[in-house]
Design brief:
binds adenosine-5'-diphosphate, binds magnesium ion, four-stranded mixed beta sheet, 317 residues, alpha/beta, eight-stranded mixed beta sheet
């Protein structure tokens, strides 16, 4: 029996060092990450890759703003689609090259993905998700604020523009993604959590109000809809810690659902970084009864063997 793994690639897998975000850097980072995914495929997993897009959305938005005198503005749904195309392309090419190198007879394909949201989601009134680079120019911060933007500290890492992040209710392309997975295609999907769309009374889809979906939430939803055997989030840390960044820091090999909920209530996971990941994994583990894993891309093969990473497991396990 083939096993389906849905694996999210964090922003850090594309931008490994602050300030090093040129395409060349992003492409090199994707190539590194693709090696680990190809190894998973060689080990027999059917892999579905998803990715974040927060920094890239902000960069494209800024580019559009700076060039308004000559070219048209870009709404956020179109910017989301741009990032699914560009990041999808880098992953698709890099995975394809790895398969070729390893002699794996596999096709890979990026699917432009929409995520259905509720236009009355209260999240639209409360922008929480950071996009773009970190801003230290006071004048620029004031300029953004005068345009109506929320500019706030992002998980203690610096000031960023913030945007609404509604809850994804349904991945519109799940059926076609499933068909591709069943055919053995390595699918790249749900980039940036999916492009947020709303449905009208006739069933027609259109762009949601300005928003970016949380990629961890969008990925968890796809993993549940595909009934995936495992949900993996790769990010900047090898494991999850309690008392993170304090002298009492303790790196965890495993958390049960109950333990994770207790740690969450005790405030061990930062909103905007680790908290959405833990919430997304709890949702998946509770719904499917399967396990979820957090690790960094370089430890992925080892973690899948149970040697590292933090595993989130059902209570009875
Ligand atoms: P991504 O771009 O992959 O979504 P984020 O930066 O949003 O990554 O979230 C991962 C980061 O969360 C880690 O690099 C780490 O700095 C931070 N973090 C917050 N709380 C914890 C915790 N309890 N354990 C480990 N990392 C944590
Ligand atoms: Mg994140």
């Amino acid at each position: 029996m083939k096993k389906v793994a849905v694996v999210a690639v964090g922003g850090n897998a594309l931008i490994r060092e602050k300030g090093k975000h040129h395409i060349e850097h992003q492409f090199n980072a994707v190539r590194e990450t693709a090696k680990h995914f190809a190894k998973m495929v060689a080990d027999g997993w059917d892999v579905v890759v998803t990715h974040g897009n927060g920094p890239q959305v902000g960069f494209i938005l800024r580019r559009a703003e700076l060039s308004l005198k000559e070219v048209h503005p870009l709404p956020l749904d179109i910017i989301g689609a741009h990032t699914q195309g560009s990041i999808g392309y880098m992953l698709q090419q890099s995975l394809g090259n790895e398969f070729h190198r390893l002699g794996i007879d596999k096709q890979t394909c990026a699917v432009v993905t929409q995520s259905l949201v509720d236009k009355n989601d209260p999240a639209f009134q409360n922008p929480t998700k950071g996009i773009g680079g970190y801003i230290d120019d006071e004048e620029l911060i004031e300029e953004y604020r005068s345009q109506g933007w929320t500019v706030e500290d992002d998980a203690g890492r610096g000031f960023r523009r913030k945007i609404a992040s509604p809850k994804p209710l349904e991945i519109v392309e799940t059926k076609v993604i499933k068909r591709l997975v069943d055919e053995g295609v390595v699918v790249i999907a749900v980039g940036g959590g999916g492009i947020p769309v709303i449905k009208d009374a006739n069933g027609d889809l259109s762009a949601a109000p300005p928003a970016v979906i949380d990629k961890d939430r969008g990925t968890a939803l796809l993993a549940m809809e595909l009934n995936a055997d495992i949900f993996v989030i790769t990010t900047a840390v090898e494991k999850i810690a309690i008392n993170f960044n304090t002298p009492d820091e303790k790196w965890l090999d495993q958390m049960t659902v109950s333990e994770a909920k207790r740690y969450m209530a005790e405030g061990h996971f930062k909103p905007g970084s680790m908290l959405p990941k833990v919430e997304a994994m709890l949702d998946y583990v509770e719904t499917t009864g399967n396990k979820a894993l957090v690790t960094d891309p370089d430890h992925l093969p080892q973690a899948l063997k149970g040697e590292t990473g933090t595993w989130i497991v059902p209570d009875e396990a």
